[in-house]
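On clarity, I found the account of how folds are encoded harder to follow than it need be. An entry of this sort, consisting of the sequence and the corresponding backbone structure tokens, reads as follows:
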Amino acid sequence: MQLDLELYREEVVVSSNPSITMSVIDVAPERPEQTLVLVHGFGGRARQWRYQFEKFTERHRVLAMDIRGHGHSSRPLQGYEMPYILHDLVTVLDQRQVTEPFILIGHSFGGAIVTDFAHQYPERVRKLILIASAGEYNLAWAIKLAFHLNDPLLRLLQPFFKGAMDASFPALKRYFLNNMSQWRGWD
């Protein structure tokens, strides 16, 4: 079944000062067997899970959000450290009334996010699934160098990479420098 995911997209306020919203796609049958929560990685977006929505929503509730700085979610200048990302996820789950233990799935750096979530909130997670995740993340030297450019220059470069990433380059810069480059999950 092909779904128009935009019909199921809603905004969830995760902060009022400053105003920050997360864009959430939440699809469920009348009586879902369980809930699947999908978290994309660096440069991704909720819509990347379209095939999983099509496959699983006949029997399961499936929820995915554009994480901070990505897709349709707010792109604040600060707050890309892991505690803020986890706060966003907890707030979305609470506001969307996901109360029972759920299956948590993370792709790429989304795997780091869901690993930290499962470590902090083990009682909320029924199963944890990691897709193409790692114990640490190291980007190519050219990308790391680009993330040391100032924001106006990054905004000028962004149109040349249209479609490559679904996040603003300044947001990705903060995400990488303040979170991804420091994350170590080997333990």
